[in-house]
Amino acid sequence: MSLLSTAIFVVHVAFLVQKFSYLLLPYGPAADIPPGRGPHLGPRADPSNVSLRLSNKKLTKIYERVDEGKDPLVIKPETVILNNEGKIFVLSENGSLVTVVDIQETDQPFISTAKAIEVAHLGTGRPLSGKFHQDGCLYFVDVIMGLARICLDGIMNSERIPHVELLASRVQLDDGSYSPINYADDVDVGPKTGHIYFTDASNARSDRDVRTGIYDIMYGSKVEGIRMNLSGRLLRYKPETGEVDVLITDLAFANGVAVDKDETYVLCVSTFDRAVFKYHLDGEKAGQVERLLDQFPGVLDGIDCSFQTGKCYVAIPSTVSAPLVALMKLPPFLSKLVRTLLLMLPRNATPAAEPFGGFAEIDPGASNSPASIIRVFQDPDGRDIDFITGVTEFGGKVYLGSLHGNFIGVYDLALIPSF
Ligand SMILES: *[C@@H]1O[C@H](CO)[C@@H](O)[C@H](O)[C@H]1NC(C)=O
Ligand SMILES: *[C@@H]1O[C@H](CO)[C@@H](O)[C@H](O)[C@H]1NC(C)=O
Ligand SMILES: *[C@@H]1O[C@H](CO)[C@@H](O)[C@H](O)[C@H]1NC(C)=O
């Protein structure tokens, strides 16, 4: 080929790539990774620490007892929800709010079973997490729909028919324009004000797998991990006015949210920074954001704080694979190019997370004491529990949700270590 025809060919290809880039790159190209950001920063997991295995006698797994001829209800419970009385709820993959009752031990040590009852159907989306409010309603986030609530007292005393109210699917920005909430991920309720704090993980929308009809919410997070667009946000909804405002922007997949007992701050997880951020609601630093902790052995997901002990728990769904670390460490131009090419691959060609189960106990710190990671509990090859996405503390126990299992994990913090 002559130089001229090569040039014409290249121009044509460039034109076609640009014209059809929405097909190749529906979520846009990879972004530059600012210094100090990204999933490659942080320590590796210690493979010898098996503190979360069943053999350590502190983890119990609760499986559903499914009646013959019935379909199971506890399907990939991302986060376990407890009400004030300790009643257990999960949100199922097909949009059901399910309560888990009558827990019974089995012959196998640390394996229990329970009945699951559908309380309500929450709509056509994919609810991930929820929190009961002082007003008796369950506020929940649905990846597809946004922030919603259902007031269950109607079910309990049949005075009113419970229905789902969609509260926020977009947020008004300072310039007056509206920005859609594309991936509502986690929610917490302010114990003092009753305000709702919730995350919008990414601007990458999830869609249904056409074969199964199930929403593919994992792909959106994979896209964000590779693309690093930093479009995650922490948002706040005020029930009294219906307003939504933005508290934190530029998070690398905004995931778990937890408020402290005095509602002086909100913790928010940035999954692909492996970091917990703190937004000050009160005091001298009100309105400021601080990167609180980031030396975790993997990427992070849900977070929850105990109002009794002041300690918080953060889920570590997976470690970061060596190829991903290498990719992030390439020279910026090359890294961006390779990551953009990866985003063009068919979605089933994107690598799956290596099996790992873990969560960390953290001290969120105070004005006179620094924050710290106290303990890391892990099942390093995910043998007994894998891909923990939600942690909920209640009565000295941490309830563990997972997108890779159809059971609930319960870790008893109070038991004396057996090693
Ligand atoms: C993130 O994605 C949005 C929408 O696709 C785009 O407008 C924005 O420029 C991207 N940001 C970066 C840092 O690439
Ligand atoms: C949700 O799935 C379960 C199990 O497949 C099924 O029993 C239940 O009827 C479903 N609920 C709805 C509303 O689709
Ligand atoms: C594993 O981690 C737990 C919690 O941090 C800690 O108590 C224990 O000593 C560690 N075990 C090993 C073998 O490192």
From TrEMBL:
Keyword Phosphoprotein among record annotations: yes
Domain Strictosidine synthase conserved region: 185-283
Signal peptide: 1-19
Transmembrane segments: none
One Pfam family named in its UniProt record: Str_synth
Record's keyword terms, sorted: Glycoprotein, Phosphoprotein, Signal
Stored Gene3D superfamilies: TolB, C-terminal domain
Family of this protein: Belongs to the strictosidine synthase family.
Annotated PANTHER family: ADIPOCYTE PLASMA MEMBRANE-ASSOCIATED PROTEIN HEMOMUCIN-RELATED, STRICTOSIDINE SYNTHASE-RELATED
Name of protein: Strictosidine synthase conserved region domain-containing protein
